[in-house]
């Protein structure tokens, strides 16, 4: 999804209306991306809300709100995971992924649900850094340089992680084991690329489920 068109803002009411349009258009997608990135719906919701509020505070200075907010959300999720890892290492505790709550779209078919769950399960089997670069590149649509800056690494290292992640995902998702060229990335891959399509369709499926969850939460709150 692209950015909501910007308009000239004459007063705070205009800013508030424009932000609300942006929030309604992009919040569920941000949470879906964050869930795939962090393996936690709750963490993704918290990070997306924090990023949206930060965007609101800087609204007049942000040229591309959706892109800016994706990066802010991703930065928080990556930083929080690094902090958790540091605490685990200090306590000598093993790392275990949290249970992943999945909001299922109400009209989702059995095949759609199984396919999405297969993709999420495959992503969970990747090392954290490989999963991060795949989601940041394939779904958050950041480039190698942006990902490298966010993760504190180099563009070359990002490419290496994408290369290994794609090879493992192809095997896990039954797409064959053909050799993947060194430095393989999604930078120039079309949307009909099978691996990209699976990741993107899973994000869309999650977004629909999150929309349904929002509606249910609002309905419950109005009772």
Automatic annotation (TrEMBL):
Which keywords does UniProt give here? Answer: DNA-binding, Sigma factor, Transcription, Transcription regulation
Q: Which residues form the RNA polymerase sigma factor 70 region 4 type domain?
A: 118-169
Cited InterPro entries: RNA_pol_sigma-70-like, RNA_pol_sigma-70_dom, RNA_pol_sigma70_r4_t2, RNA_pol_sigma_r2, RNA_pol_sigma_r3/r4-like, WH-like_DNA-bd_sf
Q: Which GO terms describe its biological process?
A: DNA-templated transcription initiation
Domain of life of the source: Bacteria
Task: Supply the CDD domains for this chain.
Answer: Sigma70_r4
Q: Gene3D superfamilies of this UniProt entry?
A: 1.10.1740.10, Winged helix-like DNA-binding domain superfamily/Winged helix DNA-binding domain
Pfam families, per database record: Sigma70_r4_2
The molecular function terms in GO held by this entry are: DNA binding; sigma factor activity
- Name the family: Belongs to the sigma-70 factor family. ECF subfamily.
Mind telling me what this protein is named?
Answer: RNA polymerase ECF-subfamily sigma factor
């Amino acid at each position: 999804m692209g950015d909501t068109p910007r308009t000239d803002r004459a007063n705070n009411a205009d800013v508030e209306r424009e932000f609300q349009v942006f929030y309604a258009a992009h919040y569920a997608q941000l949470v879906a991306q964050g869930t795939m990135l962090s393996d936690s719906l709750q963490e993704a919701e918290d990070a997306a809300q924090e990023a949206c509020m930060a965007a609101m505070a800087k609204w007049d200075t942000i040229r591309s709100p959706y892109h800016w907010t994706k990066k802010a959300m991703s930065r928080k999720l990556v930083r929080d995971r690094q902090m958790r890892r540091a605490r685990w290492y200090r306590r000598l505790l093993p790392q275990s992924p949290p249970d992943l709550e999945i909001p299922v779209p109400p009209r989702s078919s059995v095949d759609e649900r199984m396919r999405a769950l297969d993709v999420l399960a495959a992503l969970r089997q990747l090392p954290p850094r490989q999963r991060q670069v795949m989601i940041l590149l394939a779904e958050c649509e950041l480039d190698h340089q942006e990902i490298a800056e966010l993760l504190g690494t180099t563009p070359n290292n990002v490419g290496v992680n994408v290369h290994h992640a794609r090879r493992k995902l192809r095997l896990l998702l039954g797409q064959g084991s053909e050799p993947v060229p060194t430095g393989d990335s999604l930078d120039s891959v079309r949307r009909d690329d099978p691996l990209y399509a699976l990741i993107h369709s899973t994000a869309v499926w999650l977004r629909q489920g999150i929309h349904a969850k929002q509606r249910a939460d609002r309905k419950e709150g109005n009772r």
